[in-house]
Amino acid sequence: MPTVALIGPELFPIPPIRGGAAELFIEKAAEALTGWRPVVIGVSDPDLPRHETLGQTEYHRVPLTGWRRWLYCRYRHYFPLYDREVARIIRRVRPDLIHVHNRPLLARWLERRFGGEIPVILHMHNLYESLGKRERPRPGTSTPVAGFAACSNFVLERERSRLGLGAGLYRVIYNGVETDAFNSIWDPGPQRQQIREQYGLKDEPTVLFAGKLRESKGVHILLRAMARVWEIAPRAALVLVGGTEYGRGRTMRETPFMGRLRRDLAQAPGRVVLTGFIPPADMPRAYLLGDVFVGPSQIEEGLGLVFLEAAAAGLPIIATRRGGIPEVVREDFNGLLLRQPDDAAELAEKITRLLGDARLRQRLGQQGRDWVRADFTWEKIARTLETFYDEVMEQGAGVRG
Predict the structure, then answer these.
(1) What is the pLDDT of residues 236-288, one digit of tens each?
(2) Cα angle 9, 48, 282; round to 5
């Protein structure tokens, strides 16, 4: 069986005990591979061993703390510390394929060293603009990897001639959902009541947000919309799931936006619940808190994993039309899409409409849940991924032949 090395960014560990959508993709896709043996390479963490095997996945974790992280983040070109350790592990493991996530400079660095003997894939879960300024190739720079994957058609079309310039093959690989971990809000079991009681909720209509508490995610617009909603539905509750950052000891780091948000929340005319950061493994229960899921992102999201997860829990969704979001939130199928991303009045109208129409909520929620369970399981995503792996290998064999 061929071996693939799945390489994460240097920010957060895998499995994603500190958060991270790309890190979650790597963990779950590796677990679901059947025709390839996965080796995962990522950054170390105090709560994880440097090397271990979980199920079929072999994990290698590179230490990058203190001055080493500072040097790498600021002067990566001169001190490619993470890159060198990744290369050392690759030389030892000798995979048949290298799959780099969200790090185009690392993919180029590895392509120069291994591309002639081991094909390299670059997989982007975000746009060029989402990368740190020291993680971006110069405009017009070719990245001659064997394959370029993107998390949505939107990202692929935007990055085909930018981060994907020079690639041999292109493919959209959507994010997946561990669908069996998500109970539906429409199920009669006790799970929903238990989690709601944990946060002091009873039968009040509840609007749920999950994600980083940042201006770019539109949390302030949601709060303005809720001020209008509370005029019509004063019992409604707003639940904000998430912190300001990912990472060890940083999930509720006080940011200027969070300071302003706290002041606004203190004056809110209705009930708001802040859960703080919830680890990915516990997120399926968190979605049971809501009746409606709202994700008013103000930026061009690559895709938006939270929308797939909300749909898996049977939640009707309200979202903006930014980036790849309309690929997973379809108007009047599993949700409602805003015409203007920053229009609090329109958002309030859509929230009020859904809260007041249980039949519409259930139709959108159940259609979305059925769709995710059919098309976005990790098993299905892994089969698409393995087909791409095979195509990259066949292309490489043709070139070498």
Answers:
(1) 999 999 987 655 555 667 788 888 989 998 899 999 999 998 988 899 999 99
(2) 80
Distance, CA of 363 to chain centre: 26
What pTM did the predictor assign? Answer: 0.92
Strand partners, 335: 317, 331
Which residue has tokens 């079991």? 189
Number of domains in the chain: 2
Q: What is the pLDDT of residue 245?
A: 66
Rounded to whole angstroms, the Cα distance separating 323 from 321 reads 7
Same domain, 185 and 224: yes
Q: What is the pLDDT of residue 247?
A: 56
Q: Domain check: are 279 and 357 in the same one? A: yes
Give the pLDDT of residue 389.
Answer: 98
Instruction: Please tell me what DSSP assigns to residue 137.
Output: P
Report the pLDDT value the prediction gives residue 252, as an integer from 0 to 100: 64
Q: Are residues 155 and 218 in the same domain?
A: no
pLDDT at 398: 53
Q: Judge if 276 and 330 occupy the same domain.
A: yes
Q: Please check whether residue 60 is in contact with residue 79, taking contact to mean a CB–CB distance below 8 angstroms.
A: no
CATH number of the domain within which 90 lies: 3.40.50.2000
- Cα 97 from Cα 118, distance rounded (Å): 6
Count of Cβ atoms closer than 10 Å to residue 66 Cβ: 8
Q: Which residues pair with 147 in a beta bridge?
A: 121, 169
Does residue 46 contact residue 54 with C-beta atoms inside 8 Å?
Answer: no
Helical spans, DSSP H, in 137-286: 153-159, 191-198, 219-232, 256-266, 283-286
Regions of the chain where pLDDT drops below 50: 400-401
